[in-house]
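Fold this sequence, please.
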Amino acid sequence: MAFTQLDSDKGLTELNTFLEEHSYIEGYEPTQADVSVFKKLAQKVPDHVKFPHVARWYNHIASYSDEFTSLPGEEKKDDDDDDDVDLFGSDDEPDPEEERRKAELLEAYHKKKAAKPKVIAKSMVCLDVKPWEDTTDLVEMEKLVRGITMDGLVWGASKLIPIGYGIKKLQISCVVEDDKVGIDDLEEQITAFEEHVQSVDVVSFNKL
């Protein structure tokens, strides 16, 4: 079954019905078939109220815009004989050579995608570490804090800030990898130095 008139409500309704039960135009991965239909929609996001499944599919395929040429499958010709994509496939026997070529392209696509470096989420955290009294050895307290080592934790700058009655607090920053370092765990380790540390407060927490 071929889909036509994708610039009309009738054509979009047919496509919306199809995409209600399918993630892609062909198979289980984005291919040149998706690119072809995407381009026929004239770069205009379909009405998400009238055609929610088309809009969902359109925005998903748009995220691959920089990879269109590397997606598996053959680029669809936009001529009179092949103006539409056969969304439901064909009864013809598959060509073994064509199937092999598609498999190779799909494998190359997955390898390329897997080779992309993953973005490591990090945060800049600033902590206030408060001592019990003015006689607390702040140099030793900072040494204890910086002695905490965790995979994904890097200590940064620090300073002493007066808080009254001759008492100063240690304000220290650090960069943490979000997936590896939990701030609650870090605070717990710092307050474990109970002879020096009264409390720990998070002053700021910013994603990098």
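The two ends are 49 Å apart (CA to CA). Residues 122-207 form a domain with the Alpha-Beta Plaits fold (CATH 3.30.70.60).
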